[in-house]
Amino acid sequence: MKYLNVGLIGAGFMGKAHCVGFSNMPKLFWPAPAMLKMKTICDIEKDIAEEAKIRFSFEKCCTDWRDIVNDPEIDIVSICTPNNAHADIAVAALEAGKHVICEKPIASSLEDAKRMAEAAAKTKDQGIISLCAYQYRDVPAIVLAKKFINEGSLGKILNVRCTYLQSWSADPDSPLSWRFQKEIAGSGTIGDIGSHVIDIAQYLAGDIKEVVSTVNTYIDNRPVQEGGVDLLGTVKLGADAKHEDVDVDDENLFLVKFENGAVGSIEATRNAWGRNNFITIELHGTAGSIYFNYERLNELQVCWASDPDDRRGFKTIYTGPAHFYGDATWNIPGMNIGYGELKTIEMFDFVKAIVSGEQLPTNFERGYQIERVCDTVLKSAKTGQWETVTEE
After folding, report:
1. Residue 294, class by beta-carbon neighbours within 10 Å (0-12 exposed, 13-18 middle, 19+ buried)?
2. Contact 276, 166 (CB under 8 A)
3. Number of Cβ within a 10 Å radius of residue 47
4. Residue 304: which CATH number?
5. Is there a domain that residue 323 lies in?
6. Which residue, 41, 109, 240, 259, has most beta carbons within 10 Å?
7. Do 265 and 332 fall within a single domain?
8. Residue 309, C-beta contacts closer than 8 angstroms, at least 6 positions apart
9. Residues 127, 176 within the same domain
10. Listed residues 135, 166, 187: the one ending a domain
């Protein structure tokens, strides 16, 4: 059995998610492509790093990410830091011969995204794997939708409608974490959650060619969160807390034209009261339609034009053992999977790629392409015109 040593950088919310995925991978996928040893965890806060070492069963901890990148025993570098640290860590890790999984968006700037993609391209012939963590495309129901599209069951795709609606920052008393600061995050909602549905839309319908957008910031200052991990709106700070300005977007709404001629719309907001993780995808083709709602992520709704007039309508398919990854998760339809299983699926695909040497669809090149779409959305909001997603 092959063993791979993991170094994880950033012990907050996403660090926990990656640890769950790494540790559960061989429990669900057996025989595993390789076994993982949790070698070193890093966080700039010493107390957080030391606590995470115990909590997530790492052998050691550190506060400088270079200790992981320069360790010859480390095979995998998992990047769960704020966006502005992604590029330096990823490029150094790739140049050191490490396989890298990096949370999305790939970087805080288009220039850094390009630098990461170029570094990954230089090392892929050596079998070095890069992965930008767009795990929602791994939802079995979405993979099933892709299968139906590839088989021609929907005919020619005419239009695509996507949303990603959340409410965790709708309260103005939610703290000003790094996600609301352009210098660190690079952008707001478009990079944080909009990039996810851009990825899914392109996975199902092909690359986006043009966009026209409107972008809004609704809450222009917030109380400052002092230290600790990103709390993602789970706490509220008092009126006496220090406030600072928000300089990123709260909501994006844009029309899209795809390379294949399909059209569509995408909306992403973190200010939608009553919506939690409301990712919806609806595709209409000449031969049928598909609808997916992440808050019911084990279901896919389909409608076929070929059904008789008196019984045509959406029907619900419950994903289970007959579908993608179904043999590795739970063996009864309706015995639902969730976010933890998605991160486990992601880690399985990542480790399998490391062993086989086969690059993944959401490698750093794809992460860079998604960043170009995001950048074009922000550009269009300034010009008020249709803008083309340029090739770099």
Report:
1. buried
2. yes
3. 10
4. 3.30.360.10
5. yes
6. 41
7. yes
8. none
9. no
10. 135
In angstroms, the CA 5 to CA 102 distance is 16
Tokens of 248: 């990123």
Handedness of CA 179, 185, 186, 191 (dihedral sign): negative
Q: Which amino acid is at 209?
A: K
Pairing mode, if any, of strands 278-285 and 288-293? antiparallel
Is residue 342 included in any domain, yes or no? Answer: no
Tens-binned pLDDT, residue by residue, of the chain (392 aa): 899 999 999 999 999 999 999 999 999 999 999 999 999 999 999 999 999 999 999 999 999 999 999 999 999 999 999 999 999 999 999 999 999 999 999 999 999 999 999 999 999 999 999 999 999 999 999 999 999 999 999 999 999 999 999 999 999 988 888 999 999 999 999 999 999 999 999 999 999 999 999 999 999 999 987 765 566 666 677 667 889 999 999 999 999 999 999 999 999 999 999 999 999 999 999 999 999 999 999 999 999 999 999 999 999 999 999 999 998 988 788 888 999 999 999 999 999 999 999 999 999 999 999 999 999 999 999 999 999 999 77
Report if residue 46 sits inside a domain.
yes
Cα separation, 357 vs 323, whole angstroms: 25
Overall pTM surpassing 0.85 (yes/no) = yes
- Pair of tokens at residue 100: 């890298």
Q: Could you tell me which residues come within 8 angstroms of residue 369 by beta carbon, excluding any fewer than 6 positions away?
A: 207
Q: How far apart are CA 348 and CA 135, in angstroms?
A: 11
